[in-house]
Amino acid sequence: MGNPGLRLDMKKSVPFAIVAAALAAVAFLPRFASAYSVVFCSSVIMYAALSLSYAMFSGPTGYVSLATAAFFGVGIYTSAFFGKSLPLPALMIAGGVFSSVIAFAVGAITLRLRGVYFTIFTFGLVELLKHFVLWTETTFAGTRGRTVASFGSVTVFYCMLALLTALLLAAFLLRRSRVGKALSAIGESEDAAAHIGINTTAVKLLAFSLSSFAMGAAGAVMATRWAYIDPGIAFNSLMSFMPALMAIFGGTDRLLGPVAGAIVFAALEEQLITRFPSLYMIIFGAIMIAAILFMPSGVTGLIRRRPAKRKEDVPVGDS
Amino acid sequence: MLKVKGLNVAYGGVQALWDVSIEAGEGEIVALLGANGAGKTTLLNAITGVIPALSGEAEFEGRRIDGMKSAELTEWGIAYLPEGGRLFPDMTIRENLEMGAFPRRMWRERAKRLRDVYAMFPKLREREKQLARTMSGGEQQMLAMGRGMMSNPRLCLFDELSYGLAPIMVDEVFGIVRSLRERGITVLMVEQNAYQTLELADRAYVLENGRVTLGGTSAELLGDDYVRKSYLGL
Fold it and tell me: Do B134 and A191 touch (CB under 8 A)?
């Protein structure tokens, strides 16, 4: 954690190599796997990207954001508007940029709020955008939904994989950076962080916009798979909850936590939805409660390497 | 160096400071003494702009500092340690220290600053991987001081450094303050522990009900009948 610069020692480059190998292996999947597997894997990777971008901001700061669906939806509508004139990578960038711009504007107003007030506002943002888009579409375009150009499932797969790879790298670099440390400091004690000279609003704003970029990019890709979208599909609040739950389940202390959470949850969702369609949400909820009770730091929190954690029952300020 | 002129501060209509003027010269240790509620912490908060003043000003090296944000204060060489230090409990000692060099210009030099601070506080180096929450109160106070030193300040504002510490830790903490003077750092410290503070400080002010009622060198105050009776219990 403490090494300055980007020097990688042997111990740290091993997980790095494993992740790179795993991503490379996944990249060969469309060569031999069934069409269904490719589509399913695209969904898993999408969830991993959303969950990781959620964890990028909410993990260290502890600010629970339920705006994921809002930025995802902005990406979806980017593809709906420009899908017929732009290639998919350009749509991803455009979706990301639009999402970041909106995140910046919204964050500038709301990141002064703390705790549950921030969460409530971010949740409201999803509904706000949904109804705003619905109103503009019905009023000006005279339509409710739109068709989106398709690029084929293999293109979607590779674009998602590229997004996840870039995101892993970005999250890794952010975590080691000065801003990344400031984000953790804000999560530990926002007053103390402000006190030692961290411009907390600016740091939060930067991370919030950065994380929403990936959400918008993911939305731009997924829209092309759905062929038809409307505000209800694009701004579905489940897309706010799922990435947050996956990140909590996997653990936000490690980069791979949200990815692990996404893989487990997406596989679980697929199984439960096909086998127990009516009980699916109940089973899901029970697993989530158990996870929070027994693994407060998530799956990756179980394999913890932090030193001096044993004496943690000594409260702060006790002499 | 530090000049505070005619500061008036009110909290929700109740005036807490009345026309307070104090000064601290370069490399001087200046103490603010007074009972609970006399306005000592309020004065530090007003100097650092945590609370706005009704009138008056605070300047450091000729620059107004009372309206500055804490990020700017750090960059202009001012470290303010509020009571209790405000550490990051789940970060290691080393991580806490590194955060003290957050402003961009200092961040690049943090390895050098860290060596410097470890030289001042060897105990912190020995335990750099320990979490801040697992330290004793005195050690946490040391860490808070060390984190303040990471930004290489020229002026330190300390609020109740000795509060809640065992006597042996008070000696140690005051010893560090003395070493700051040797480095030419100006110190303005709020204390209730009048006797030990006057032995350490060069000069001191007495605050009572929001007004400066006395000021002078430590020797003068130690010899003052009123101070001896009211603050030293002699």
Answer: no
